[in-house]
Amino acid sequence: MGYLGRWQIFVCTAISLVKFPVAWHQLAIVFMAPKQRYNCALPGFGNASDQCHATINGSDVECTQWEFDRSVFPETIISQWNLVCSRSHYANLQQSILMFGILLGSISFGFLSDRFGRKLPLMVSIVLQLASGIGCAVVPWFPALLLMKFLSAVATGGTMVTSYVICMEIVGKSWRAAITILYQIPYSLGHMSLAGLAYWFRHWQHLQIAMTLPSIILLGYWWVVPESPRWLLAMGSQRAACKVLQTAAKINKLDDKEIPEIVRKHCLHQNAKKTEADGRASFLDLFRTPNMRIKSLSIFFNWIVCGMGLFGMTQYIGHVGGDIFLNFALSGAIQIPGNFLAWWTMNTLGRRITLVASNCIAGLASLLLIFVTPDLEWLRLIFACFGIVGMSVSFTTVYLYSGELFPTVIRNIGVGTSSMCARIGSMVAPFVVSLGIIQPWLPPVIFGVLPIIGAGLCILLPETAGSELPETLQDGEDFGKSKIKFKNGKICNEAEVAL
């Protein structure tokens, strides 16, 4: 079907659109629960320095109702349910539930798509995202909102992991980096466009509906997106795989007559290598053998670093001051150059060197924040932007790297677990930022040291650029083993010899 033709471009472009609602649902909390000024209204007016308590007949009592500043946002989750003072932790709870839901969705849908194919779990996650998103806008109770947000987050995690794996499995090895960039750019555009949606829909319920309804278009994937032919072949469904490949060949204007014979030979070759364990591959296979264990732990740590660093730096740039809509759009816009930079470096320098360099840039930019005084906000903003660009390059690279490291039979489980690790980092990031209350230098140190450690762990990973994707568990274990060979007079591992 060709390494990259009309069929691959059409399918990958269509699937990449799923990243718009992914960005909207994941980041909407910035505008749905922003910081708002408030004053105690009942049982009386609060003190100038304390709007959580009021003095009534000489006694200090807690406020039960507040008046909120509605000059920017007429209604938010904070103002609708009075999530201030002793109830302020509920706003943070919503963010934690959101990230936990994405984490759970990445794992569960990763497992389902390795068992039942890529297409059906993708459609289930889109339907769930649409239904729960509308539910968020209409529920009258805050606990019900938390439940709907959790279900929406599970669906978001599902769309992320299944859509990316489909893209990875229908293109040739020389175009995997380009497709990864195409897949990531809509997320940055969604990040930017959310600022525009929030500007026009200031009421949080209106914003929720505005960012949910476009998912109706994604229901068309049922007729547009095919099942992954690579998954069909791995499961032994030769006839279904031939049908998909022949359709792709016709659209790409290639001869499709020899596809059945090519598929038959491919399956015979894979069956010769396949073991009984491939038919019952599970999460434990990521760690069962030594080489897979080293690769899994190294890449998972880098995902944690990317989730923590990118989310933490984005949160920091949103607190610099000024217009919230402009600052938020800027934090999304600066990720786009990082995506194209990642494309160039991954193709010219390889995946491993790109990840090492981008982690080091992000880490050093964060560490330099320690030496910048608070009054130099413009310089702090510049270093934060460098940190975001570095982390966006790392995120794009680690996405592609993960898809190439794991074999087909556990690829979705591996990518799903990787995404779960990123969510763990995202959940921790706000707490790392809050450490600045204790010591201002603590957040930059943590955001700076961890990427550098991640860069060091990349030494344990093989280079995957130009390599065939591993299919079976044995392929995954053999891929990148340190068998010393020589190439052009240099010592390198087996994966590098293949380049």
TrEMBL record:
It comes from the Eukaryota. Pfam families: Sugar_tr (PF00083). It is found in: Membrane. InterPro entries: MFS_dom (IPR020846), MFS_sugar_transport-like (IPR005828), MFS_trans_sf (IPR036259). GO terms for cellular component: membrane. It is a multi-pass membrane protein. One of its GO terms (molecular function) is transmembrane transporter activity. Its main location: membrane. Keywords: Membrane, Transmembrane, Transmembrane helix. Residues 11-466 form the Major facilitator superfamily (MFS) profile domain. This is Major facilitator superfamily (MFS) profile domain-containing protein. It comes from Trichomalopsis sarcophagae.
